[in-house]
Amino acid sequence: MKKRKIFTVVLIFSILMATLAGCDKADKVSDTTKKPVIKIGSDNYPPYNFLNEDGIPTGIDVELATEAFGRMGYDVEIVNIDWEKKQELVENGDIDCIMGCFSMKGRLDDYKWVGPYMVSNQVVAVNENSDIYTLSDLEGKTLAVQSTTKPEGIFLKRTDSRIPKLGNLISLEHRELIYTFLGKGYADAIGAHEESVIQYMKDYDAKFRILDEPLMTVGIGVAFSKNETRDLPEKLEQTLDEMREDGTSAKIIGKYLDDPEKYLEVDALEP
User: Is the whole-model pTM more than 0.85?
Assistant: First the structure.
């Protein structure tokens, strides 16, 4: 009887040790299968990057990046950054790249670029009852823009003969404030990406009117540090091309924008 009890105890102990060993082995397998993480810097810019109702980053760029880097064997972490410090952050290695409706035009020498993977129009929007209908009507008016964006540069430099002299250019750090300034009448017009204006009108039932003549048509890209030594940019370029060809990009963009194919006509962009 005692031998049977001893045998039972030994058997239970052996099973317990085997189970623990199995758990330890499973943990080790799990650890080794974890994907490396790519940190993508962006600010809040619907419909490209914003927080959903559960506080989770979502949007066109978030989904494109998650799919593309996922195919490459990486997980993605979206880092909400101060947009004015984006170049400093990517050069210092605080983030791996910048992907947030980022226009390539005029910045080709500042980063190692992937793209363009989408097309976007920079536009001027006014209140619905405004008497501004053309770019020339902006002469002497007040325009609000997000600082360090392409519209700010367009009106500061005025290298385009279509751009009139403003009465005042207001540069604001946070994108949302430009719409507040327009709605409250602090500004006569705003300059921004067309998709952003459309999304804001949808979200807040705002009555703005986008001028027919765009400020500029630009290609949107992913920016890495000029000193990037990994092959990430080359692999990402190839993966985004594959996603455009297999219909994945159009499917993602179509969740947020009508006529998604027009945003993928990157081959028609001027160099």
Answer: no
